[in-house]
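pinned: reference chain
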Amino acid sequence: MATRVRQFVIHGVTESGSRFRPSDWAERLAGVMAQFRPAGCAGNHLTYSPYVLPVVIDGVRGIVVDLRLRDLEPLAYKFVVDFARDNHLKTEEREI
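pinned: its structure tokens
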């Protein structure tokens, strides 16, 4: 039986419907979060964390945050959630 993963998704669209700028915001945010990795996972400074990945959903840039980050590093998770809230970005939680 496969384990289901809960995710927090930040869409690059504001609550008022505008695209969030700059256009590379998702890659920048994922780069800042690259240091947060599962225990025993060797870090490569040129890769994203498996917990925070930039994505494109329906043609819009976004970030997918694995909710396990909340347990691994609560302040890092809070930083990402606060980023979305402070910039009035649309968010959702999902399970895959």
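why pinned: Strands lie at 6-14, 52-57, 60-66, 89-95. The first strand starts at residue 6 and ends at 14.
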